[in-house]
Amino acid sequence: MAKTYIDENGYRRFWDSGKLVSHWVAEQSLGRPLKKHEVVHHKNRNKLDNSWDNLWVCKNQAEHDRIHEFDRIRFGARASYQGFRYRLY
């Protein structure tokens, strides 16, 4: 298994390439590389939970921002970015 580390933003990356583990998991699950504009979103806001069922591939940053905005309105800013104690999706 490849060695990983947690970067300054709290995301897990591979030591050898610096690639985000969440991006690697998404690419393996989709069977293709991510497009330049695609953004990987952690549904439960846990940046270390890189299981495929916790990841959403957004078509662009604007779509990703809308997810966080919706959650901010519905659950508050803290829940939108810091995570939930239970699964919403």
- Round the Cα radius of gyration to an integer and report it: 13 Å
Taking the alpha carbons of the first and last residues, their distance comes to 30 Å
Give the low-pLDDT segments.
84-89
Structural shape: globular
Largest sheet: 2 strands, antiparallel
Give the % helix: 25-40%
Structural class: alpha+beta
**Number of H- or I-type helical stretches:** 3
Mean pLDDT over all positions: 88
- How many domains comprise the coordinates? 1
> Looking across the biggest beta sheet, what order are the strands in?
1-2
Beta content comes to 15-25%
* Secondary structure: number of strands: 4
H/E order of the elements? EEHEEHH
Give a summary of the structure in a few sentences.
By secondary structure, this protein is an alpha+beta fold. The strands form two sheets. It has a two-stranded antiparallel ribbon. A two-stranded antiparallel sheet has the order 3-4. The C terminus is likely disordered.
Give an account of the 3D structure.
- The protein has 89 residues and is of the alpha+beta class.
- The chain has one domain (4-82).
- It is built from three helices and four strands.
- It has helices at residues 21-30, 61-75, 77-82; strands at residues 4-6, 12-14, 39-42, 55-58.
- Strands 1-2 form a two-stranded antiparallel ribbon. Strands 3-4 form a two-stranded antiparallel sheet.
- A hairpin with a 5-residue loop joins strand 1 (4-6) and strand 2.
- The chain is globular.
